[in-house]
Amino acid sequence: MSAPTAAVGRAQPRLEGREKVTGTARYAVEHPADGLAYAWAVQASVAKARIVRVDDAVALAEPGVLAVLTYANAPRLAPVESRELLLLQQPRVHYRGEIVALVVAESLEAAREGALLVRVDYDTEPHSSVLTERHPSLYKPDKVNPNFPTDTCVGDFDAGYEAAEVRLDQTYRTPAYHNNPMEPHASTAHWWQGRLLVHDSSQGSGDVRDTLGRLFEVPAESVRVTAEHVGGGFGSKGSPRCTPVLAAMAARHVDRPVRLALTRQQIFGPIGYRTPVIQRVRLGADADGRLAAICHDAFSQTSTTTEFAEQTAVLTRALYAAPHRRTTHRLARLDVPTPSWMRAPGECPGSFALESAMDELAVACGIDPIELRIRNDTDRHPEDDLPFSSRNLVACLRDGARRFGWADRDPAPGVRRQGRWLFGTGVAGAAYPARSPVGSARAEARPDGTYQVGINATDIGTGARTALWQVATEALGVPGDRVRISIGDSDLPPAYVAGGSTGTAGWSWAVDKACRSLRRQLQEQYAGSVPPGGLSVFTDTAAEVAALEKVARYAFGAHFAQVRVDVDSGEVRVGRMLGVFATGRVVNPSTARSQLIGGMTMGLSMALHEEGLLDHRFGDWVNRDLATYHVSACADVERIEAYWVAEDDDRVNPLGIKGLGEIGIVGSAAAVANAVHHATGIRFRTLPIQLDKLLQHLPAG
Amino acid sequence: MTGSPHRSPVSLSVNGRPYELDLDNRTTLLDALREHLALTGAKKGCDHGQCGSCTVLLDGRRVKSCLIFAVAAAGGSLVSIEGLADGTDLHPLQSCFVQHDAFQCGYCTPGQLCSAAGMLDEVRQGWPSLATEDLVAGPDGLTDSEIRERMSGNLCRCAAYPNIVSAIREASATGSRR
In chain A, what residues touch B24 (CB-CB under 8 Å)? Predict the structure, then answer.
């Protein structure tokens, strides 16, 4: 058998690259349809209220407006778990920005105009929208996402902490973050010949199909949701959101295909965001920096409609050894939109606190921060007492230190000045769970010598389509140009959502199994040739996943950052970011590197730029667009490098693959903040680090 | 509805092809492309002039098509992402973007490419940028910091920035004949 050209481990340009650079890749509201109508959302202008009256007469008189959907006339929806999705059902407002009406019109312009003309009268009630660690609504949820214990306790933290030679007790604060994928949430829906057909900008069209089926009380088989190309998600499209529901309601109401694209401003809230988090971290260590006690208490917010419990302190359960340890999570139930998934939920904010605290401990102990982390490494999960399938945190730290040129670092803060600039470097560790969810796939051999592989995976920019094609090609043992991969369609064999860094591991496993099974059947039953009618194999990995041995599965990483701070303006520039990761077998080095630097850059953005600024009087963010909610731009990223250490881990799953879509953001903001401390001597425990906050502490220029 | 005071006839040349449109006066150039000409390559990332996803070339200059009413562009000559390639031959920027993995989700990509094409022409004409040392003498070659500065009107949330820079650097070297 000749070597396939698409071998796993070889850099491969994206299969859909040509479509994406020629503008022919179609996203959710770009599919042609006859008789299209357009929908536009109307959002609540108050935070908590009863809707007294909706006056749609002026809107309906606007030329081109077909309908105004409100709680009074919208199609009734059957209950589903997420009450966020029970849209336009009741005259209630739970948060400012909640969608309270939907205008449907012949054109975008008429829909938008109509939305301006809908008048909603409210009977407002007092609201509470600001998270504090003493908020009266704070409670202990039954579990934190996705299914972790809320609190954990090993040993006796209080005693261990009291007895420690070095004690650190600090509180870290991160604001609300908005995912802001470049494609705002959008859907096209059409009820046609007894089926509901939806093009959705989603990370998992199977869940959207199932949810629409339940909401509209139709069998899931009569709903088809596709997500062929998705303009990013970063978690915000990870579970069904309002857009496909509203588009389907509108399409049913006007009996036409309906496009609904939320605007950039509209997505700040209704589609989810990362909760603000307040974290108290206590570390107790001996003078050599060996941890005796770790405690991580996290406070975050949820809404009054649906519980969302960010798993902020879960990272701390796995990263460092210590005999005495405690983690807790408390939620404040506020009059806000429900927080939701955003890249590395839990680990991202949690790592900012823990890895900043570790840097502070290194300073307090007078120990190099890399050495401190190495001293607290562990070969067993510190709380579950399980061996790791592989744990290469130390290898990442050492390899990164070598590449970054850490060895000669002077630990003294605030002493490296060249002209107006103060220079500093920082490091942080990272870990992220390596899960492999159950998936199913179909592999089909056709008489013309080609192979068709189908799985309802989603490529939100990760490179999943290309990676799965590489895996399929290797498993089939044929040249890549004979293999076609189909994804992003709920009619395909079901597979897990593109989230939790599980895609390449879980989907590849299913694709590999289906392809190897097909290959074996062809060899054993057809002497290696394809029968005249072709041969199709459908398999799933349920039995294999259930039989996985009980070990702790994580990817690890280390971040390095070099910053310079302008003493006159307080401007922070990140001159270099370098990450080294242990993520098992890398399928496509080209797209893997892109994922890692993308995550690292989002961490840079978190450290320096992003901040949802809430106005408590209105219970809403005042910065609701990309001119005021800043995300890193091209000029902010000077030099950024991602590497990985060789890692052969056959216990994580049979393919040895760990996900890497999220670990790039775990710890990266802490590395930047730690570098700012090294540059200036100023410790930032509240993000973002912005010049007005730095300036008052800097030496005179 | 033609003849209504709310609509106007609009002549546009798009990718070398003439179009006679009858448009609602409120229609942006972006929506004219996407909803009336079925040219959905230009993307709507913010509809607000803040992200650059809708960038096209209007009379040779890069513009944000979401900020221009179609009637205001009447008589103009427009190149969108669909017109950047020469038939089936990709523009050097396009092939370099694929080779350098200069995108992930691809949603900002058409805007990045049109913006890069316009930007390279601005550099050729000697227009300075914030990264230019001598504003009078103009840019001294296409340094990475010049590319980064000049491409910062095009956001990429996937953060393919370093690959975008390397793709543009290579395309500007190989594609200067075009």
Answer: 107, 109-110
What's the pLDDT band for A6 if we cut at 50, 70, 90? low
Q: Which of B83, B102, B134 is the last residue of a domain?
A: B83
B27 and B69, same domain (yes or no): yes
Same domain for B76 and B110: no
Position A7 scores a pLDDT of: 87
Q: Please check the confidence at residue B178 and state whether its pLDDT lies above 60.
A: no
Q: Could you tell me which residues come within 8 angstroms of residue A90 by beta carbon, excluding any fewer than 6 positions away?
A: A71
Residue pair B65/B28 in contact (Cβ under 8 Å)? The answer is: yes
Please give the tally of structural domains in chain B: 2
Put simply, the answer to whether B24 touches A595 (Cβ < 8 Å) is no
- State the pLDDT confidence band at A65, using cuts at 50, 70 and 90: very high
Q: Is B34 on the interface with A (CB under 8 A)?
A: yes
Chain B contact for A634 (CB, 8 A cutoff): yes
Measured between beta carbons, the chain B residues lying within 8 angstroms of A180 are 157
Measured between CA atoms, the residue of chain B closest to residue A23 is B41
Q: Which residues pair with A166 in a beta bridge?
A: A285
Nearest to B108 among A107, A182, A593 (CB): A182
A241-252 pLDDT, tens digit per residue, is 999 999 999 999
Give the residue range(s) of CATH 3.30.365.10 domains in chain A: 37-126+181-263, 143-176+274-434+551-695, 437-542
* Stretch A478-501: mean pLDDT: 97
B46, B95, B159: residue with CB nearest A601: B159
Answer CATH for A37-126+181-263 from 3.30.1330.30, 3.30.310.50, 3.30.365.10, 3.30.470.20 = 3.30.365.10
Share of chain A above pLDDT 70, in %: 99
Main-chain phi, psi angles of A380, to 5 degrees? -125, 150
Domain A143-176+274-434+551-695 sits in CATH 3.40.50.150? no
Q: Taking the model in full, what pTM does it have? A: 0.97
Where does a domain end: B27, B50, B83?
B83
Distance separating alpha carbons of residues B162 and A641, to the nearest angstrom: 9
Residue A623 sits at the chain B interface (C-beta within 8 Å): no
Contacts of A226 (CB under 8 A, 6+ apart): A198, A199, A200, A205, A488, A489, A490
Contact A331, A307 (CB under 8 A): yes
From the list B38, B95, B105, the residue facing A231 with the nearest CB is B105
Cα dihedral A247, A251, A257, A263 sign: negative
- Type of residue at A641: E
Rounded distance between C-alpha atoms, residue A440 and residue B11, angstroms? 52
Find the angle CA(A438)-CA(A444)-CA(A448) to the nearest 5 degrees: 160
Instruction: Give just the sign of the alpha carbon dihedral A287, A288, A291, A296.
Output: positive
User: CA nearest A602: which of A569, A571, A579, A624?
Assistant: A579
DSSP state of A553: -
| Closest Cα in chain B to A604 | B159
Which of A182, A188, A586 to mutate to probe the B interface, most B CBs <10 Å? A182
